[in-house]
Every structure is written in structure tokens, then in C-alpha cells.
Fold:
Amino acid sequence: SAVISQKPSRDICQRGTSLTIQCQVDSQVTMMFWYRQQPGQSLTLIATANQGSEATYESGFVIDKFPISRPNLTFSTLTVSNMSPEDSSIYLCSVGRTGRSYEQYFGPGTRLTVT
Amino acid sequence: AQSVTQLDSHVSVSEGTPVLLRCNYSSSYSPSLFWYVQHPNKGLQLLLKYTSAATLVKGINGFEAEFKKSETSFHLTKPSAHMSDAAEYFCVVIDNYGQNFVFGPGTRLSVLP
Structure:
């Protein structure tokens, strides 16, 4: 398994500002992912954070709005830029592990409220 | 493309009675399937997974799921519900790339005393 921490755990931000969320893993991993969970909804993949290259974004998500950094194999950040109330969500990072089978382990999430 | 349907958005059971949470998937090849649980204000926890070995998969906390290819289903069951089982449950399939998860819409389980 993997132990994943996220900072901050929650925040309340004003419209038009940006927030950077940090994700730290207790061991080196190749695959890291960022998800959004809107209120009462399921999880939607935002992007795959690649170490040493640009993130790979899913349809509907763009780098200008959700810039991602992946400076090493244990850390990644997601920035939510120019926030609006529609960005109020839980943001989760996860890591993928292959072994006997493939699994993903999730961080505790960052609960973001935009006013 | 892979997709997941969870037929019930909300299931309510009495404590001590069986739990059945339904999941149907769509996949163009032999899938890997997972069930995750999310307790209020907590992260996601893996309950169990199917990866083409035994079709009946046992997970944590007494949960199990049966993979039925002919029905494209992977329903989650537990013989006796406990109050602590009240949470949101997500059925997940892996996409064509073999590493991206596709989440179902979730089923909220309520357990009544």
C-alpha cells in the first residue's frame, strides 16, 4: 500500500484567487493522479501527473485552470486557478501501484469551498 | 470505452440484515474491477478487487463480490449490515490504458438501527 497526505485538508477561498494543493507519498511511485469530487457526485479524473514531463489532462480539464507539478517521485501539486464557486469540490490525489495486480491508493482529499 | 453503472443511488437496510449494492460494467476486454468505500469526511478505502482470478472475491469487513461475465455485473454483498457500514460505495473499472480508473456514480448505504 501507500500512505498519502494532502495539504491543506480544507480551505475556504474567495472567487478569483488560486489555491495550490500538495500531495506527498511515503515512497517513490511512477503514477500519480488528481481527481475532483463535486458535492454529492462521484470522482472524475482531472489529470495524470507525470514526473519529468507535462501532466496528461482528461477531456474538460485544461492546464491553465489546473496546472500540475511533479518535481519528483514522491510529491505533486495541483493548483486551482482563478476560482469560481463551481470549483467547490473535494480534490483527491492518488497513486497507482502494479504488483500482482494494479491498485490505486487515495489521499484523504482537500475540501475546497469558493465564496 | 469502459463505463460503470450503479443501479441504486441510495440503499437503506436495517442493522443485521443483508446488504446488496449493484454494479454493472461495460468493457471491451476482460476488466479489472474494484469496490471502494468512502466514509463521511474520510478518504477512499479499497474494499476488494477482481483481477481475473477467482470470480468470488472476499474483501475487508465481511464484504464480498461476485464477478459474472455473462451478466457484466460485479455486485457487492455482506450478510449482515453493521452501523459502521453506512457510507458511500463506488464501483470502479480500469480503462483501456490499464491505469486510469473509471468510477461509477456511487451508492449511498444507510443502516437503520
User: Anything to note?
Assistant: Chain B touches chain A at residues 32, 34, 36, 41-44, 46, 49, 51, 90, 94, 98-101, 103-106 (CB under 8 Å). Chain B has a mean pLDDT of 91. The longest strand of chain B covers residues 87-94. Chain B is about 0% helix and 50% strand.
